[in-house]
Amino acid sequence: MSKDDIKKYQDEITFLKKEVERLKDELVRMVSRNLDLSERLEWDVELRRRTQVAREIMEGHVERQRNADLQDAIGMSPVEYRLMITRDF
What we know:
This protein is mainly α. The protein contains two helices and no strands. The protein has helices spanning about 5-75, 80-89. The longest helix is centred in the middle third of the chain and has 72 residues, at about 5-75.
């Protein structure tokens, strides 16, 4: 092996060591980014779940209110019933 070959291999080793360090840094950056994205995704899923629960609660409340209004309407005179209906509009 000549001195030029040895020098070439040493340069290549130095380059590869630098490249390994760069890739380690990039890996740490990517893992950190993935963790951040995972947390955001979990937050988004939780928000969507809570929104769905709130929507179901509101729909149930509206349905119970309609049923209560219908129950009230059964005992009302036609004039009272008409006033109750137009009140909502």
